[in-house]
Amino acid sequence: MPEACLQAFEIYLKFKAYPDALRVALRANDRELQKRAFSSCGDFLVKQQLCHSLARQVGNVFARSHGQRLSPVITSSAEAVVNMRASATCCQTC
């Protein structure tokens, strides 16, 4: 991992920007940094957001490695993310 990415990760953790830290760790494909970003977070709602990010990443990796055949668990997780986005959009328009 480039030094600049590691520094960005450390800065995000220092300022408790856990979703941004996780994004850097996912782009670097570094499992240890992913675990560190997740375990450093103490806020339940932010951890849920991190879980959705991790589920999307795992789903993308699984789809690429298995010829676009998604397991039911990953598919239902992806559907939950889509439904959550749709309800958030609906709430913003109301």
Protein traits:
single chain, 94 residues, mainly alpha, 5 helices, 0% strand, disordered C terminus
Compile the SSE list and pairings:
Layout: H1 3-14, H2 18-28, H3 31-40, H4 44-65, H5 72-93
Helix pairs in contact: 1-2, 2-3, 2-4, 4-5
Describe the structure.
Helix 1 (3-14) runs antiparallel to helix 2 and helix 4 packs across helix 5 (72-93). The model is unreliable at 66-74 and 86-94 (pLDDT under 50). The protein is built from 5 helices and no strands. 14% of the residues are buried. The chain has one domain. The longest helix has 22 residues, at 44-65. By secondary structure, the protein is mainly alpha-helical. The radius of gyration is 15 Å and the shape is globular.
